[in-house]
Amino acid sequence: MKTLLKKALGFSLAAVIAVSTLAGCAGGKNDNSGDGAKGTNASAMGRYLEEEMKLPEGMSKILQLTKLSDGRVRMLASDGENKTLIWDSEDGGSTWTKVSDLPEELTSNRAQVMTSAISSNGESAIAVMTGSDTGGTTVLYWVMDKDGNAKKISIELPQDNNQSTQGEGEPTTEVYTNAVSKFSYTDDGKLIGIDFENNIHQIDPQTGKIVKSFSGVAKGSYIMSFQAIGNTLVVVTDKEVQLFDLSTGNQMEKDAALNDQLLKGKDETALMQLLRGTGEPFVFTKGDGDKSIFFGSNDGLYSHTIGGNLVEQVINGDLNSMGNPEYSFISIAALEDGSFLMAGAEGYDVYKLYKYTYSKDTPATPSKEVKVYSLEENAEIRQAIAFFQKNNPDIFVNLEVGLSGGDAITVSDALRTLNTNILAGKGPDVLIVDGMPVKSYMEKGLLTDLTEILKQVESSEGLIESIKGTYSNGDKIQAIPTRFKIPLIQGSKANIENINDLSSMAEQIQKLKAENPDKGILGNLKAGDLVEKLYASNSAAWLKEDGTLNEDQLKEFFTLLKQIYESDKHETEDESMQMIGEYGESSFYNISGGINSLLGNKNMLNLGLLPEFSQYIQVVTANKKMGDGVVKLLNGQTANAFVPMTTVGISSKSADTESAGKFVAFLLSKDAQKINQGGGLPVNKSAFDEGLEAAANLGDVDVSSDQVSGLTEVSESDINDLKAIVESLTTPSVVDDVIKENIKEQAEQCVSGSITSEEAVKNVMQKINLYLSE
Fold first, then answer.
1. Which residues constitute the signal peptide according to the record (predicted)?
2. Contact, 183 vs 115, CB < 8 A?
3. N or C terminus: which one in the chain shows less Cβ crowding within 10 Å?
4. Which residues sit opposite 53 in a β-bridge?
């Protein structure tokens, strides 16, 4: 083990150099827009390289993985039929030998492994939830010796909310029974478990008897990771990292360095995003000595001494699969030769085993760097970067996010800094122009022509024609949306068939309200939320050909907006906030956010954006449930509008347009476009067709959601309807966030009666025309 630590920490010195070279590469934590793509510092040599390893024969799911005290690696894995086996590898994961099968009771289709652990001696513990014909569930606990011989044990746990016990007994139909949620073994073979009520127990693995219970984790905390390391138990909650002394059971002094590395700067939303996968957001294993640890996260692999002030990066997650925001961790094994085996999952059902081996002849950082700038965090871009760098190890993609959310920087501030850097030749190579004045950038010659790059993608996979030319300039295409959203309106045929533009919508909404005074039409929306729902189908009308604001169109919008707003009751402001809190802000503005109110006859119309195929399935299914439900493109002051998403362009001042172009081509490829984080429908035609076909083939599958559940009924006609809508799209909405925020600000005052429609227009004209002239 000493050899292991010396090698790993020696390697990490190069990683520390690499980190300083690449400081601020993630999440916009740096405040530079760089000098464009360039060769990075190649004088520092040596970094860990990733290799994907094969799972044991026939296995598709990794449950647990641990390095044993004799150097072997032991894995618990199962196949597609839920059959679970124990495997050993004596060559660092290259080949695997079966040790034993687990009992059939553990591998039935009704059994679901809740948690498992493997000791350094090869013993294992598993908690399995099983179902019964009566609909009840029970949790069974099993332990296996080092040879795989299995035995069922009963563990009696405190029942704060239910006085029954759980173990070998008959299945229970009661709503709640306490159970072990996570297992971990200490170095000397003690079994540690934490239950649903956050009580920590030392459990006798032979009898299931609780030897002692420790001071518990705060009841309101959510356990994100749980691992015994030496004589210390590491518990990562959604609030802090807590350490427990395993010899006394007492909570230890807070480790500020570890806490900051794992949790600092992560708000509730960021933490919830980390919990989307099958595994956990953090993983731990022992280093050399009782308090030495290695731990992994999407940022990479680190070494740390518990209680110390230093955290050293051993492997930079930005250069491999660890940086994929969809990747979650199952376990890690630190091998004697200084390499690491990492078990994890991409999403919910794709399990991966990676080996990280140090290469002294590889530059500590890639020889080329492409700088990408985005105003907002973008999950699709993050995931695409991880895939791209895996296939292009010589190029480092450095993403800077202008609005981190943790400071007082406004959109205008961020754009002003970006524009200054671009003009000074210090800007990014690739721009994600969402929220930016893209047409102004085109007119000023700040974006290069993408035509040749697009030809490459078109010749092999195709691009949706109605979207491809969104930002054409003569015979040039200087930016292209990699995704798009569609504004839709849903309701009964009688209620929406006469809605063809904003004026007819206002008229129809007033008519519906007069006929149905006790029903909601669009619901209790705040003015700003109503603007969000109408923005896509109206904003293009507000700009003239010369780029200035259209005063007449703005006046009509504010006038009709007030009419629409006043057609619903607004006694409280709770509904919008409640919906946003429950589903997230972007989900609230999507078409799925209003299906429930439509089906429940709370509201008569549903407006929203279509960001992914699964939501179209929900819409179609809801329409069938309504009987007379229909959905169509929402036209406003502009017809056939759509929302360009993750629109990409290459800076004309980039020092390496070849590398930048390679990255842009990948963003438009089917491999990248198949990534779905709800950021929009793919512009790649092959990815679009495959995604739509997959949605159509979901027939007789339960598409349960918070809004609608039941068997899908997507017909060929439904699919053709969506294709026809996409083919009809011609006009991109205005993606400039400065304009949108000013419209929303004036809308709030206008509908409240604080100012007139004319005054709202005047205020917008003053602010925005000044902004557009900069």
1. 1-23
2. yes
3. C
4. 353
Tokens of 238: 């959604």
Q: Estimate to the nearest angstrom the gap between the alpha carbon of 310 and the chain centroid.
A: 29
Tally Cβ neighbours within 10 Å of residue 183: 25
- Confidence band, pLDDT 50/70/90 cuts, at residue 581: very low
Structure token pair of residue 162: 């239910």
484-644+689-773 and 370-482+646-676 share a CATH fold: yes
Strands of 266-339, DSSP E = 283-286, 292-297, 300-305, 311-316, 327-334
Q: Whole-structure pTM over 0.90, yes or no?
A: no
DSSP codes of every residue in 591-650? GGGGHHHHHTTSBS-EEEEE-SHHHHHHHHHHHHHHSSEEEEE--SSSSSEEEEEEEEEE
Rounded CA-CA distance 567/565 in Å is: 5
For residues 467 and 458, what is the distance between their CA atoms, to the nearest angstrom? 13
How far is the CA of 448 from the CAs of 64, 405, 664, in angstroms? 49, 30, 12
Rounded Cα distance, 178 and 192, in Å: 16
Give the C-alpha separation, 464 to 721, whole Å. 16
Residue 395: which of 15, 647, 664, 649 has the closest Cα?
664
The pLDDT, as a whole number, for residue 80 is: 83
Please give the Cα distance from 520 to 161 (Å, whole number): 40
pLDDT tens, position by position, 214-235: 877 777 788 889 999 988 999 9
Predicted pLDDT of residue 30: 37
Domain ranges of the chain: 55-157+175-215, 256-362, 370-482+646-676, 484-644+689-773
Least confident of 405-419, 626-640, 646-660: 405-419
SS3 496: helix
Query: What are 131's strand-pairing partners?
Result: 137
Fold of the 484-644+689-773 domain: D-Maltodextrin-Binding Protein; domain 2 (3.40.190)
Give dist(CA 179, CA 141) in Å, integer: 10
Return the higher-pLDDT residue of 238 and 38. Answer: 238
Total Cβ atoms within 10 A of residue 311: 16
**Cβ-proximal residues to 707 (8 Å cutoff; 6+ apart), any chain:** 592, 593, 595, 596, 599, 618, 622
The whole-angstrom separation of Cα 393 and Cα 524 is: 51
> Whole-angstrom Cα distance, residue 69 to residue 193?
22
**How many C-alpha atoms does 43 have within 13 Å on its Cβ side?**
3
Model confidence over 100-119: pLDDT tens digits? 998 887 777 677 889 999 99
- The tokens for 50 are 């990733």
Give the whole-angstrom CA distance, residue 223 versus residue 194: 9
Q: Is the pLDDT of residue 747 over 70?
A: yes
Euclidean distance between CA atoms 36 and 39, whole angstroms: 10
The H or E element containing residue 129 is: strand 124-131
CB atoms within 10 A of CB 439: 20
Reported residue count of the chain is 774
55-157+175-215 CATH: 2.130.10.10
Q: Does domain 370-482+646-676 have CATH number 3.40.190.10?
A: yes
